[in-house]
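Supplementary Text 2. Reproducibility record for the structural model of the 107-residue chain.

All settings were left at their defaults, and a single model was retained for analysis rather than an ensemble. We include the record here because the model underlies the residue-level annotations in Supplementary Table 4.
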Amino acid sequence: MSVNVYYKKVSSTTDVATIQAITRQLLDVLIANEQVQLSKVIPLKVHFGEAKNVTYLKSDNYLGVIDYLKEREIESCYIETSVLYGGQRYKQELHAKTAEEHGFTSF
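Retained model, structure tokens:
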């Protein structure tokens, strides 16, 4: 099975507005080229990051996707998985606290 990968190069210095615009462009290309039919509910799999960690995608980077879906009246939410090892993502309350601290609240 072959799979097409769509991407645009960004760096750690690429501003959020540019990332949001690129995201929207890539979604348009993906949907057109792959003839994707969007459902009425699409969850966004994200990584909230660990406490005191800065190497995760910030919540603002997802706003391009969120706005894209909202404009098409598609419901969405963040989803993430807990972990088996220690840390804040091990317990539900601490996991939710980390999500909130890193800007992953309802939209």
